């Protein structure tokens, strides 16, 4: 790799001090443990914070600066009486902070391991500064490992600034899920044209505004949560404020990654996410697909942010419309069924409130058992049916009404509608 651009950097004192302060705040000591994805994530967050402060350094430039700072630190440690290292001008200004960062670290290294030596990089070495060689390396390409990363450095998310454009039900559901993780309300901002939906966000301690641009300028991750037909309008409005600091996550049904990328500046990190309303109670089912400039670590960051919203999966974009029918809309199909169950009981003479309460508990219990047992629904259904008993009579009636075929058709229609919305949004963005 030609890294001459990375090496020729002129850092001023303020910039270096800010960089070190950010690393200290991000608790570098807990993060630099040889896990490449996690280290990349840390530098990416630092990059976003530096950009926000007006210092435009790439992630690679930050890594290289860190490498030089570490070399200076080790040089001083090895030869305390020698003159200050020359590669970091004014090293004496940073020495105290570097010592604070370096000497409070290594909590994951086992006894007997000389972690300082394993970590040491010299100015001559061309190894990647952030990839250290400590025990238990963690390859970065499996869901399991990403989950591990999320579990092991949850405090990372608390440093991120999160924005929502649109203050409707879906934004509120995701915001609630995110806040039940590690994100602080003070780091979240939401915008909408009117105030009617903003009060509930304020109750959570979230800042509100009527300016979408204010949200973008103050955030690292921006959720676009407006109705699909408004996405082009909103992206046109914010595009000139979107930088490489940002990750733009659209939850709009149907709106494709191609449309998002066409409306955003070149190389923008865009992600298409399809959540569902139970994010409100941290029981959502969410599927996302990464755009062409969104890296694996961006996906890991999003997973980490959303992990309290419910089940979070990544898949190819073609599955997003299907997931919209299955789950985004699917919850409404389940509500319809719950409502019909209750109405059946009311018809047979049960008071309505009790019937609805029992119907909701029935859906909840059936869902939990289905998820937690890992059994196929047909297996559980057969476990409920006594031969010649009540259930099989009821199921026969449902089959006569075509419940299975109409449920499959409902998922199909909702998927097709999402695809249609996608075609419309593509055509709209080209106008
Ligand atoms: N509801 C659901 O279950 C799911 C929804 N989605 C997707 O989420 C998105 C949002 O849906 P939902 O939350 O239900 O919609 P809502 O109608 O509840 O909310 C839409 C929000 O967008 C705001 N808004 C309108 N115009 C603008 C604008 N120009 N700039 C900023 N904000 C604007 C509205 O403002 P105001 O408050 O002033 O009216 C409102 O707060 C949709 O694209 C939908 O496809 C995805 C999965 C599930
Ligand atoms: O009905 C809709 O279009 C949105 C998307 C999935 C759920 N609600």
TrEMBL record:
This enzyme's EC code(s): 1.5.1.2
GO process terms (BP): L-proline biosynthetic process
A Pfam family matched in the record: F420_oxidored
Gene3D superfamilies, per the entry: Homeodomain-like (1.10.10.60), NAD(P)-binding Rossmann-like Domain (3.40.50.720), ProC C-terminal domain-like (1.10.3730.10)
Reactions mediated catalytically: L-proline + NADP(+) = (S)-1-pyrroline-5-carboxylate + NADPH + 2 H(+); L-proline + NAD(+) = (S)-1-pyrroline-5-carboxylate + NADH + 2 H(+)
One GO CC term on file: cytoplasm
Domain Pyrroline-5-carboxylate reductase catalytic N-terminal span(s) in chain numbering: 161-254
Pathway noted in the entry: Amino-acid biosynthesis; L-proline biosynthesis; L-proline from L-glutamate 5-semialdehyde: step 1/1
Principal subcellular localization: cytoplasm
Enzyme class: oxidoreductase
Subcellular localization(s) per the UniProt record: Cytoplasm
Organism domain of life: Eukaryota
One of the record's GO molecular function terms: pyrroline-5-carboxylate reductase activity
UniProt signal peptide: none
Keywords: Amino-acid biosynthesis, Cytoplasm, NADP, Oxidoreductase, Proline biosynthesis
Region called Disordered, residue ranges: 109-136
Boundaries of every Myb/SANT-like DNA-binding domain copy: 9-82
InterPro entries noted in UniProt: 6-PGluconate_DH-like_C_sf, Myb_DNA-bind_4, NAD(P)-bd_dom_sf, P5C_Rdtase_cat_N, P5CR-like_CS, P5CR_dimer, Pyrroline-COOH_reductase
Record note on quaternary structure: Homodecamer; composed of 5 homodimers.
Function: Oxidoreductase that catalyzes the last step in proline biosynthesis, which corresponds to the reduction of pyrroline-5-carboxylate (P5C) to L-proline using NAD(P)H. Proline is synthesized from either glutamate or ornithine; both are converted to P5C, and then to proline via pyrroline-5-carboxylate reductases (PYCRs). PYCR3 is exclusively linked to the biosynthesis of proline from ornithine.
Family membership noted in the UniProt record: Belongs to the pyrroline-5-carboxylate reductase family.
NCBIfam families xrefs: proC (TIGR00112)
PANTHER family xref list: PYRROLINE-5-CARBOXYLATE REDUCTASE (PTHR11645), PYRROLINE-5-CARBOXYLATE REDUCTASE 3 (PTHR11645:SF0)
The protein's name: Pyrroline-5-carboxylate reductase
Species for this entry: Oreochromis aureus
Gene giving rise to this polypeptide: PYCR3
């Amino acid at each position: 790799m030609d890294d001459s651009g990375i090496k020729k950097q002129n850092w001023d004192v303020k910039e270096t001090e800010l960089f070190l302060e950010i690393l200290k705040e991000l608790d570098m000591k807990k993060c630099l443990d040889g896990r490449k994805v996690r280290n990349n994530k840390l530098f990416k967050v630092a990059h976003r914070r530096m950009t926000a402060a007006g210092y435009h350094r790439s992630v690679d430039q930050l890594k290289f600066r860190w490498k030089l700072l570490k070399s200076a630190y080790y040089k001083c440690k090895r030869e305390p009486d020698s003159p200050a290292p020359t590669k970091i001008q004014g090293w004496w200004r940073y020495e105290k902070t570097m010592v604070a960062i370096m000497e409070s670290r290594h909590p994951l290294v086992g006894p007997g391991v000389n972690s300082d030596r394993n970590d040491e990089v010299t100015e001559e070495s061309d190894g990647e500064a952030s990839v250290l060689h400590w025990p238990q390396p963690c390859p970065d390409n499996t869901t399991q490992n990403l989950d591990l990363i999320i579990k092991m450095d949850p405090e990372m998310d608390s440093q991120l600034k999160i924005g929502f454009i649109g203050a409707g039900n879906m934004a509120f559901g995701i915001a609630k899920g995110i806040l039940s993780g590690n994100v602080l309300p003070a780091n979240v901002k939401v915008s909408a044209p009117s105030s009617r939906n903003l009060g509930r966000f304020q109750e959570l301690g979230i800042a509100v505004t009527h300016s979408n641009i204010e949200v973008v300028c103050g955030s690292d991750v921006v959720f676009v949560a407006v109705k699909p037909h408004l996405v082009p309008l909103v992206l046109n409005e914010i595009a000139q404020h979107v930088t490489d600091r940002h990750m733009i996550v659209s939850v709009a049904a149907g709106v494709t990654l191609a449309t998002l990328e066409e409306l955003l500046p070149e190389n923008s990190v865009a992600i298409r996410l399809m959540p569902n309303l139970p994010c409100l109670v941290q029981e959502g089912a969410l599927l996302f697909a990464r755009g062409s400039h969104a890296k694996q670590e961006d996906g890991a960051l999003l997973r980490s942010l959303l992990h309290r919203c419910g089940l979070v999966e990544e898949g190819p974009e073609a599955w997003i419309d299907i997931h919209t029918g299955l789950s985004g809309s699917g919850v409404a199909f389940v509500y319809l069924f719950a409502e019909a169950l209750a109405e059946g009981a009311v018809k047979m003479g049960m008071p309505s409130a009790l019937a609805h309460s029992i119907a909701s508990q029935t859906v909840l219990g059936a869902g939990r058992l289905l998820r937690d047992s890992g059994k196929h629904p047909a297996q559980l259904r057969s476990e409920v049916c006594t031969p010649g008993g009540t259930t099989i009579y009821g199921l026969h009636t449902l089959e006569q009404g075509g419940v299975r075929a109409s449920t499959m058709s409902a998922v199909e229609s909702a998927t097709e509608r999402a695809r249609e919305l996608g075609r419309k949004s593509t055509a709209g963005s080209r106008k």
